[in-house]
Amino acid sequence: MSKRLQVVVDDAELRRFQRAARRQGVNLSEWVRRALREAERSSPSTAPERKIDAIRAATSHDFPTTDIDEMLADIERGYPG
C-alpha cells in the first residue's frame, strides 16, 4: 500500500528540485523518492553510541598479547608450547 507524504519547501527550493528532476528525466515525485532512498542508504544503520559501546566492551577484555614481530615469528614456527 502506498502512502502520501507531504513536504513543505519554499518556491526557490521547489524550482531547483524540479530542474534536478528534469535533468534526470523523471518527475518530481520519483526524484524525491530516489533522494529519500539514497539518504536512507547513506545514513548509519546503527547509532554511533552503540558502536562505541561495542568497541569499549571488546577492549575491556584482557587477552594475552605480545609484540607483533614475536607473534608472527611464533606463527611461522607453528605455535611452540
Can you characterise this structure?
The chain has 81 residues and is mainly alpha-helical. It has a domain at 11-60. Helices cover 63% and strands 0% of the residues. The chain has four helices and no strands.
Please tag this protein with its features.
63% helix, 81 residues, elongated, mainly alpha
Secondary structure blueprint with pairings:
Blueprint: H1 11-24, H2 28-42, H3 48-59, H4 68-77
What is the radius of gyration computed over CA atoms, rounded to a whole number of angstroms? 26 Å
The class by helix and strand makeup works out as: mainly alpha
Query: Topology as H/E string?
Result: HHHH
Instruction: Report the oligomer.
Output: single chain
Q: Unreliable segments (pLDDT under 50, ≥5 consecutive)? A: none
Instruction: Give the biggest beta sheet.
Output: none
Mean pLDDT: 90
Q: End-to-end span in angstroms?
A: 64 Å
Total helical elements: 4
Count of beta strands:
0
Strand content: under 5%
Helix content: 55-70%
Write down the overall geometry: elongated
What's this entry about, in short?
The chain has 81 residues and is mostly helical. It is 63% helix and 0% strand. The chain has helices spanning 11-24, 28-42, 48-59, 68-77.
